[in-house]
Amino acid sequence: MSRFIPKINLRTLAPLLVVLTALLIAVGLVKSKPTIEKSEQTKILPAVQAMRIELSDTAVSVVTQGLVKPHKQIELASEIAGRVVWVSDTLIAGGKFEKSDPMVRIDSTDYQLRLNQASAENTRATVELEIAEKNYQRSQNLSKQKLTSASQLDDAYKVFKLAEASALVAQADLEQANLNLQRTEVTAPFSGRVQKESIDEGTYISAGTPIATLYADEIVEVRLPIANEDLSYLNWPKQMRGTLSPDQSVKVDITSSYGGIDYLWQGNLVRVESEVDSATRLFHGVAVVENPEFEDIPPLTVGLFVNAEIAGRLYQDIAVIPRTALINGQVMIIDHDNRLQYRTIEIIRIQQESVLVGAGLKNGDLLCVNPPTIVVEGMQINPLIANANG
Q: Of 291, 331, 334, 374, which sits with the fewest C-beta atoms within 10 Å of its C-beta?
């Protein structure tokens, strides 16, 4: 008997083969997937600049500005009237002169004649005095011998005293005439420079007419405004006003620029004005600077705008920290676990980009120089230590 073999329909079998193949591929992909190793996540800490605190003795200073002014300045004037016949070549704005240099000459003709006249009057009065004195002595001798009356003696005495007075007047007139003749030449009372002049040759001037403005340039001064709150930093008696004694004078560094080059002059604060400027509410100190003509640095010129640094008090065991480290009167210290901790400090002074701290910090403290924008006390950071406190 023959075996029955059923017929396979390929159309029916094809979808099953496709499904079976897909399942085999899926199983193969699952078995061949890579193994992912687990790793711990690294914590990233914010980096901040830090510095190590070192306490030191630090002197403060007061920075201000001012204009150079003459230490001594006068209006040169004539003491007599007359026509100007000569003017010195140095009598121009900026002209340099020495003490006793002639600056102006006035026509002396009239004054020479007056001197001659006074000399003659003095000679006449001197002769008359000698005669009157001899007559009085003769009358005294005759009176002792009872050869003249008392009235005659009195008359001789009277004539003698009048002659004596006339001689004194004549002598005074002679001295005045001689002095006026000398005054026809106007001389410089000190060495210095001409600020401005106001006459020319041929000008007729009266007694007291200003000739020029002169100032001494061997010493100049600078008037320096000082804020009320800065007075406590200066090393002088707080009740002191007026001229300071030599041992109380304060050193001042004056700086300015000549031809694009910065120069430094040493001066001394020698005077404190007693009044406060009503407009600015500032005190004013006056510094003087010796101004030699021939040195390695140029002389300070009157009218020059200068910067000044006035030496102040010396503070002991203080820290100087950057202003960026200050947060509402506090700072942040980095502890041994690199965590931020608030620290209250005593601020002596804030000057430019630095803060002077008197208490609250100690040697070796690690200060956070630039705290993060969002600060939480106790947060951990990564300190980048910069140079030590200086």
A: 374
